[in-house]
Design goal:
The protein has helices at residues 14-21, 105-118, 176-188; strands at residues 2-3, 41-42, 53-54, 58-60, 67-72, 79-86, 89-97, 122-128, 131-141, 147-159, 162-169, 190-191, 226-228. By secondary structure, the chain is of the alpha+beta class. The protein has one domain (32-228). The strands form two sheets. Strands 1, 5, 6, 7, 8, 9, 10, 11 and 13 form a nine-stranded mixed beta sheet that branches. Strands 2-12-4-3 form a four-stranded mixed beta sheet. Strand 5 (67-72) and strand 6 (79-86) form a beta hairpin. The protein starts with a strand and ends in a 7-residue tail after the last strand.
Length: 235
């Protein structure tokens, strides 16, 4: 991976108890069912951060050939998104606080449609491996002066008091074969919501990996993270 910027039993006597229990077993991870059975996961479902790149609210599973960029809000200088580049395509991810009793994805899909429509684009809802997705086509002017479209594929998953949004760009936005790795990266991501009360839609806190600077990679074989462009949060 390259960086570019969750009946009472009788007590046994002490000696007996130690013998009966034997070596302490590692806690088992909870079984995840439904749409998220293969991820993305909550921090309580994947409590160990071993093998993951820790970005605060998000834990990312490294992969050879993967480039990671953090994206910074210019007005506050806070990290607001992480973008994974792989094979000429990209996956941008953001995690938000969500209500306990309901999700955000149904509502946000409608907002994506309104926003894209106001810019002269079109949206299409399709069923994918992670449920309902949005394919957005935004008009752009091509280098030769002709009119074209930029395509983005929006993924959304509601978790326990959080919502994870992914945006796939580049050839993988339309080519399912090229999107496979990015889908796997999205599914393997762990969202660490935390226990603090937060208003729905507040962005969960992201940070640079521990020990990472522009001069020093966070781990052997990883280049230093690169700062990306300003990005707009969902509102």
């Amino acid at each position: 991976m390259v960086f570019g910027r969750r009946k009472k039993n009788r007590s046994l006597p002490e000696a007996e108890d130690s013998e009966a229990r034997g070596p302490e077993a590692a806690p088992e991870e909870p079984v995840v069912e439904g749409l998220r059975r293969n991820g993305p996961f909550d921090g309580s479902e994947k409590p160990s951060a071993d093998g993951y790149l820790d970005l605060g609210a998000l834990r990312i599973m490294p992969r050879e050939g993967l480039q990671l960029r953090v994206e910074v809000e210019e007005s506050t200088q806070r990290v607001v998104a992480v973008t994974l580049d792989y094979g000429g395509s990209s996956l941008q991810m953001q995690a938000f606080a969500a209500p306990k009793s309901e999700g955000l994805w149904d509502e946000i899909r409608g907002q994506i449609g309104s926003s894209v429509g106001s810019e002269g684009g079109t949206v299409e809802e399709i069923e994918g491996p992670l449920g309902t997705e949005v394919i957005a086509r935004l008009p752009v002017q091509l280098p030769d002066g002709q009119r074209g479209y930029r395509v983005a594929r929006f993924l959304g998953v509601d978790g326990p008091r959080w919502f994870l949004r992914g945006v796939i760009g580049g050839p993988a936005a339309l080519d399912r074969g090229q999107a496979t790795v990015l889908e796997e990266l999205f599914r393997s991501t762990v969202v660490v919501r935390g226990d603090a009360p937060m208003p729905p839609r507040d962005l969960l806190t992201l940070r640079l990996p521990k020990g990472a600077t522009r001069e020093r990679p966070p781990a052997p074989g990883l280049a230093a993270p690169e700062r990306g462009p300003e990005i707009t949060e969902i509102g």
